[in-house]
Amino acid sequence: xxxxxxxxxxxxxxxxxxxxxxxxxxxxxxxxxxxxxxxxxxxxxxxxxxxxxxxxxxxxxxxxxxxxxxxxxxxxxxxxxxxxxxxxxxxxxxxxxxxxxxxxxxxxxxxxxxxxxxxxxxxxxxxxxxxxxxxxxxxxxxxxxxxxxxxxxxxxxxxxxxxxxxxxxxxxxxxxxxxxxxxxxxxxxxxxxxxxxxxxxxxxxxxxxxxxxxxxxxxxxxxxxxxxxxxxxxxxxxxxxxxxxxxx
Length: 248
Description:
Elements: H1 15-32, H2 45-52, H3 56-68, E1 72-75, E2 79-82, H4 93-100, H5 106-130, H6 133-149, H7 154-170, H8 174-194, H9 205-216, H10 220-241
Antiparallel strand pairs: 1-2
């Protein structure tokens, strides 16, 4: 697979970054799709770079990014090998994007919703106790955008992601805040996924508004319970979007 034609002319400014990004996506998607299994070595640098139609430097930089995300390790005598799945940074937004570029496996979907069911209700509880006026304003605007644009729209999806991310940030808990971008990315990609084949069976915005109302009222117990319900309904919608296939 060639990513770009060989061209002896100087590359336009910024094109090198685009090429490296394309190589990274190609490799990441292949790994997440299961084309390479844990313990398996990637093809040699020279051969693989040639196959992809890119320079060795661009290929090497893409591999370094994969190493940083926990997908591979590279050693002088053994080459670049796929690491066990437990080492992968599954909350990295890029890794999630690669996983959802095809059909994500049931283990990943189950893991994401189990994590959300643990993290988000507790984050909503803390947010109800610690949120600032600025946090409330961001969430309120996100809800207006979601309602106006719907979750079938790119900007509506971005607003949904912003809503969930703000709740984790409003928890004022550094450990939860560190998870915010990964959790929010998981929310976005699972929402994209469940709308691929059919429209959502219902409008989820009112449920988000109920969570917001409880946080705004500083009602920690209700905020936690409503977020628990929201996550469970999101799981049910995903099940519906898959045609009823169980996530076990």
